[in-house]
Task: structure prediction
Amino acid sequence: MNLAEKIKNSWWVILSFIIFLNGLGFMYIGFKHNNRNWIIEGITYEFPWFFYFIIFAIYGISVPSTLIITFSVILMLISVIRSVWVAVKLADVYDNNEKYTIKQTNLNQSSNSQNKGGNSHNFACCLCMICIFIIFLVIIF
Result:
């Protein structure tokens, strides 16, 4: 894959550098690659900005919101680093397409290779995000 195609496939990284829109890039790439974790990650990056606008709409300028803005900027910096990292990994996948293609197997082999733990990783991820938001709300109020 040449440089122009890599840039074309990684345009969504630019959204991470734009204030208030830093999570939309992850939501876009999550929908494009059907990856629910990236969609949740994009929502996580957008949630503090949404929360800030709700508080601003209700209380106006009278409520000091420096903590919310600080948290939002920290998440924005994390989203920039994470989006560049994901774009580099996706470029590797695009370059080595034959390495990452799914080969068809018969039913007996695929049932033995399935994860025996179920969806425990997804549950742990959701539980961690809920805990982060609860801590965030406790700090603010």
The radius of gyration is 19 Å. The CA atoms of residues 32 and 97 lie 17 Å apart. The helical segments are 3-9, 24-32, 36-59, 66-95, 97-100, 107-112, 120-140. The mean pLDDT is 77.
